[in-house]
Design goal:
alpha+beta; Tumour Suppressor Smad4; 19 strands; ATP-binding; Diacylglycerol kinase family enzyme
């Protein structure tokens, strides 16, 4: 188990409860507490090479992404097998956990890990970096790049709500050019100020943005919101909360094998910098971006 010591507001207590359940059920668990994202990735690669059956990411979506990247980096055990990825959701949004249907209570999540049911997960790749659920550019990536980590640990999802309220009228909503290569090879270019490239259905937790997406198939979905401005953002947000975002005017959903993102016009975002990019809730640089599906799938533990 690779545990992020800073995940969530009560991550330490929740981790202890899960470990108690696992060990009471006869599971032998070695716990590593990495010093940062690169260390988490390196430890996961080492665990893959050491023959562990399962490597559990205990933390939020960023921790899960780093551990999964490490499993993909590793050569696997001498017989060529990679460990399965387990998820103990301790973070703020826990989007992959919602996608998999994992319970929030640590004891219940531990029981899923003990049961050992596996399903396939195809990771996405953005500019050479694996991601499990989503990469995006727009006001949400702007917020991720400027998020106060301490505030996020103290207040959880409220930190994003306050940040969105503060940014909605200041952000300039610069357009992004989205070149989508469809599964049949057809190419289309769209424009919009907020673009989500997702592997799964969920966004920000349990909210559904791409109803037909399936992490078990090697396919991306591009969700392009074509209208900018604070009021359009508010309408999109309310529709997302109500489960109606995919049916809103100005929203395009496109299945894709590959996607390229670039600034549609010269300029910068409202902070005076190049357009920021985020993946699985972590800041990962700026545009342009090339996004596809990785060549190797992982097995992930999930409810039966």
């Amino acid at each position: 188990m690779i545990a992020n010591p800073r995940a969530g507001r009560a991550g330490g207590r929740r981790l202890a409860r899960a470990l108690t359940d696992l060990r009471a059920g006869g599971v032998c668990v070695d716990v590593a507490r990495p010093q940062g994202p690169a260390d988490a990735r390196a430890r996961a690669a080492g665990a893959a090479a050491s023959g562990y059956d399962v490597v559990v990411a205990a933390g939020g979506d960023g921790t899960v992404a780093e551990v999964a990247a490490g499993l993909l980096d590793g050569a696997g055990s001498p017989d060529g097998r990679r460990p399965a990825l387990g998820v103990l959701p301790l973070g703020t949004a826990n989007v992959l956990a919602h996608e998999l249907g994992l319970p929030r209570r640590p004891e219940a999540a531990a029981r899923v890990l003990r049961a050992g049911h596996r399903r396939v997960l195809w990771p996405g790749i953005v500019n050479g970096r694996p991601f499990m659920m989503m990469a995006s550019v727009g006001i949400d990536s702007h917020i991720v790049h400027h998020m106060d980590a301490g505030l996020k640990r103290r207040t959880g999802k409220l930190a994003y709500v306050w940040a969105l309220l503060g940014a909605a009228f200041r952000y300039r909503y610069p357009p992004v050019a989205v070149t989508v290569e469809a599964p049949d090879g057809h190419t289309e270019t769209l424009r919009g100020p907020l673009v989500l490239i997702t592997r799964g259905r969920c966004y920000g937790g349990p909210l559904v943005v791409a109803p037909e997406a399936d992490i078990g198939t090697p396919l991306l979905w591009a969700v392009v919101l074509t209208r900018g401005g604070a009021w359009a953002t508010a309408r999109y947000g309310l529709a997302l909360l109500a489960g109606r975002l995919p049916r809103q005017p100005g929203v395009r959903l496109c299945p894709a094998r590959r996607v390229r993102l670039a600034a549609a016009e010269p300029g910068a975002d409202s902070a005076g910098a190049a357009l920021p990019l985020q993946a699985d809730g972590d800041a990962i640089g700026t545009l342009p971006a090339e996004i596809g599906v990785g060549p190797v799938a992982l097995e992930v533990l999930a409810p039966a």
